[in-house]
Write a structure and sequence with these properties.
This is ABC transporter family substrate-binding protein. The protein is α+β, with helices and mostly antiparallel strands. 21% of the residues lie in helices and 21% in strands. The protein is built from 13 helices and 25 strands. The protein has helices spanning 80-86, 139-149, 204-207, 209-215, 267-272, 285-291, 323-332, 335-343, 377-386, 416-430, 446-451, 501-510, 516-533; strands at residues 16-19, 58-63, 94-96, 102-104, 109-114, 120-125, 170-175, 181-186, 227-233, 238-243, 256-261, 278-280, 298-299, 302-312, 399-400, 403-404, 406-412, 435-441, 458-465, 482-483, 489-490, 537-544, 546-548, 552-553, 569-570. The strands form 8 sheets. It has a 7-stranded mixed β-sheet with strand order 9-10-11-2-12-23-13, with no helix packed on it. Strands 1-19-14-22 form a 4-stranded antiparallel β-sheet. A 4-stranded antiparallel β-sheet has the order 5-6-8-7, covered by helices on one side. Strand 9 (227-233) and strand 10 (238-243) form a beta hairpin. The longest helix has 18 residues, at 516-533.
Length: 572
Amino acid sequence: MRIRRAVKVGAPLAALALMAGACGGGGDEGSENKETLADIPAIDINETDRSELKDGGTFVWGINSFPPQFQVFHTQGNEAHGASIVNGVMPRAHYYDEKGQPHPDEDFVLSSEASDDGSTVTFELNPDAKWSTGDPITWKDYAAQVETVGAHRDNAEKFDIGDTTGYERIGEVEKGKDEFEVIFHFDTPFSEWPRLFDALYPAKYMKDPKKFNEAYKDEIPVTAGPFGDVEVDKTSESVTLNRNDDWWGDPAKLDSIVVRAYEPDALGQVMNNGEIDGFYLGYDAAAYDQLKDADGVRLTKAIDNAYRHLTFNGGEDRVTSDVEVRNALVHAIDRAQMAKATLSGVNWTTDPTANRLLRSTQTGFQDNSEGYGEYDPEKAAKMLDDAGWTRESDDAVRTKDGEKLQLQWVIPSGLQNTADEAEIAKAQLKEIGVGVKVETVPTNVFFSEYIVPGNYDATTFVYSSTNPYAGYSAENFIGPVGEDENGNPTWGNNLHNFSTDEINTAFDDLSKITDPKEYAAKANEIDKMLWEQSMAVPLFQRPGIYAVDPEMANWGARGLASVDYESMGYTK
């Protein structure tokens, strides 16, 4: 493995990209795994030195949904599979080790340092770095991204930005001693600054709203990474990343990476058939049973930087807009039963403990659900009574002012565990007079046509983080982030479509804290606020189980660590 020089990037150490989840099954509900989260390692990737790897080969990476957008700062680009593709072909300022500590990615940023008061951050750029067009990557590319993603442009409303956090605090970007030094002047210090520029795009694709919104939707026209020359095939739902022969860093060991989408319940079979070389198995009980003893397959086991949750749409026109209703619904649903039904089939701890902002391997991880997460149907029924939702008989759906308390529960097709969750909730909510209509929609439009635009009342899916910072999840909970052309509030990547001033302020305060213990304490304070609002109610911390060719090295369950794409390869 290559060693990168560490410099001054001190900051406390999860925003989360979206994943529908993995197929699951009930397993043996009478069994119980006594293992705890503390027993599970932080990383499992068959870590191997580059010198021990073959040159060449193709890795076929199976995924369960095709990305709708490769501009990761677009509202439709906040999706985990898209980010996995982009990270192999676009610049990033920093990478993270297995403890979640940031380091400059010297292929792009030779050094990075903040001033003592946090008012300025300086990057020394690698002068060898260049776009696939042959143009050098300079301070102008960073400045253009700040202007757009920070919503500083006069026509900001024309850019469909998912999250401005951090970028909006940069008041000025200055050219340093030459075009390869960039100085960021922060109006308000931002302790999580190493997570900015986790992907960088060329200036011309940031300045023009049409290019920003559309140019990276169906292709990746300009790249700068160990892989490039990207071939996007929407018909076969595959993306091919080819080794970049003009790459200035350590050359990629693989010739190519092919990322191919399948129906979620098909991934285990195509892996068993040898059609793919690796995929996130998670809690797919059928795939686990099929592959656990299969020749040519290794199953990883490590903590994953993600959690599965139950989400309610709190938008003004939804039946779940009232916090008392949302809180009552949580008390009416047995989250432990959901976790056990999903996890017992994959030999993973059925402990449902999860924290929205901290993983179990991080400082300060704790359960903050007391008073809001307990399964208590009697309490739930009383809360709905107090909120004015009445019930004429034991079999009736509650009503208020002529409206029925019936949820539109949207789930993606091909995900048995998601269907199981919906059916468990439906049966339990019926007991307290809440109706549930389960609506199954195609996986490839689940987010783009239902969850992102807010066409749902309830659903379950995964928030999967691309970095270790608790504040990175702010985009999922704060807002509104602006207004559309008609003056209506926009919520960006906050798919709940509501927030509170208290939550907004707390995330703002979190981003200024540099002491790790104080940072963790504030993260837990925020997690409690989110429990109070029943936002992204945790079901369990997601298992880090990947199925992978045993000869593939440096890929699998990474926990808090970044993928080193050029060091992925097959052992000799």
